[in-house]
Design goal:
By secondary structure, the protein is of the alpha/beta class. It is 38% helix and 19% strand. It contains 15 helices and 17 strands. The strands form 3 sheets. An 8-stranded mixed β-sheet has the order 4-3-2-5-1-6-7-8, sandwiched between helices. A 6-stranded mixed β-sheet has the order 12-13-17-14-15-16, sandwiched between helices. Helix 2 packs parallel to helix 5 and helix 4 packs across helix 5. The mean pLDDT is 91.
């Protein structure tokens, strides 16, 4: 296979293992040992949580780069191109770099079968190690204990939230989820935890591992101060530190505060001005992302959010309640997600729901969405695709109506691809 044929490699990786997800570390750890990639950089952060991982990783990366460090960030899934998953010094890695890494892993694994995600994790670790980085931020893909990322021992462990998602793998209680997420801990590790309601299973593991716990609201956090807000926490010398007059941001403040506390926990330092500058530049595509597009000669407001579980839906509902502008929803959901749990917090928020299947074999049938929303007394209509649902929403609503596209990475990516195509067509026309 050509070393530059990334699409070919990805198609092959999807077919190599009997199942899409195969929890466990033995296979991936054995291949990592053959490649000698268990330590991708001198400083390692691992980030787990039900929600908030992506924006926490992005904020931490900005802080590390502001401190002059050469960084690598591994996240998943991607929105538009696979390369988004592996970033070095703030840039996506190239197709060729990924393909060469896949080829090395393929040769090293020999008889060992790896999943698509395990291949991708090893590729990221290999590229990071080859690049001579100062620090890496690794997002845990699923759970913690048995996720492929957990073959790496972190210096700082970060937990953003503990809620229900992926129940078929993590269990259907917060206690079981908490135990799985505690799997990223190591003896005596520094732990930055944004979850304020820790399940007992998680607390037991924190105590058993003698983790150095820094918990949001108790040790760090944020406060509103009118038009701006304040960050507080324990700096690299374990002294209380407050950062005043932080500008407003669309990124959840809990996640920014958690990233800053993780940065301090690693023994790193920046001035107040440098911290504000770094955090003001944090942006994550598809995560509470507000955009304005021109449609039929009028500016239209969009909000893109990949939230897909009850925890994310509750956060979205609280954010939207801050202003009572008219809104419509463009929505699709995967079959393994809690449909009622996602919709219930948002009941009454939207004038109308435009429903569509996701471009994935795992999509939940639209008839399920219609049934659930109709039962809750919500106005809704089904469409053949996210693109059709978005177009109809743009055509049929006043210019003052905000369109909220959410429910999945698939719904947001489909909307972005369609909007990009419309922009290209309009420009060419």
């Amino acid at each position: 296979m050509s070393s530059a044929d990334l699409a070919g490699w990805l198609a092959r990786l999807e077919q190599l293992h009997p199942t899409e997800i195969d929890m466990g570390l033995q296979r991936v750890a054995s291949v990592a040992a053959r490649l000698g990639i268990s330590r991708p950089a001198p400083l390692v952060f691992t980030v787990t949580g039900t929600n908030g991982k992506g924006s926490t990783c992005a904020a931490l990366d900005q802080l590390l780069q502001q401190a002059g460090l050469r960084t690598g960030v591994y996240t998943s899934p991607h929105l538009l191109v696979y390369n988004e998953r592996v970033r070095i010094a703030g840039q996506n890695v190239s197709d060729q770099m990924l393909c060469e890494a896949f080829a090395r892993i393929d040769a090293a694994r020999a008889e060992v079968s790896l999943t698509y995600f395990e291949f991708g994790t090893l590729a990221a670790l290999l590229l990071f190690q080859q690049s001579g980085l100062d620090a890496v931020v690794l997002e845990v893909g699923l759970g913690g204990r048995l996720d492929a990322v957990n073959i790496v021992d972190p210096d700082v462990a970060v937990v953003t939230s503990i809620g229900l998602d992926h129940q078929e793998y993590l269990g259907d209680t917060r206690e079981s989820v908490g135990y799985e997420k505690a799997g990223i801990l190591r003896p005596g590790i520094k732990l930055v935890c944004s979850e304020t309601d820790m399940p007992s299973t998680f607390q037991v593991e924190v105590e058993r591992q003698h983790a150095q716990l820094l918990q949001r609201t108790e040790h760090y956090g944020w406060r509103s101060t009118g038009s701006s807000w304040q960050l507080f926490g324990q700096d690299q010398q374990s002294q209380r530190r407050c950062i005043d007059k932080v500008p407003a941001t669309s990124i959840p403040k809990d996640n920014l505060a958690t990233a800053l506390q993780a940065f301090w926990a690693a023994g790193l330092a920046l001035s107040d001005e440098q911290i504000i500058d770094a955090l003001s530049r944090v942006s994550v595509t598809g995560r509470m992302q507000r955009s304005t597009v021109s449609w039929r000669g009028q500016p239209r407001r969009l909000l893109l959010d990949v939230g897909h579980n009850p925890h994310a839906a509750n956060f979205l509902a609280r954010e939207l309640a801050a202003d009572r502008v008219p809104r419509v929803a463009v929505f699709g959901l995967l079959a393994d997600k809690d449909l009622a749990g996602v919709i219930a917090p948002l009941a009454g928020t939207f004038c109308h729901w435009a429903l569509a299947p996701l471009p994935s074999p795992r999509t939940r049938p639209v008839v399920d969405l219609v049934t659930c929303l109709t039962t809750m007394g919500e106005s809704c209509r089904s469409y053949g695709s996210i693109a059709e649902a978005l177009k109809a929403s743009l055509d049929d609503t006043p210019a003052t109506t905000e369109i909220v596209i959410f429910g999945s990475f698939f719904s947001v990516s489909a909307a972005i691809l369609w909007l990009n195509q419309q922009s290209q067509d309009l420009n060419n026309g």
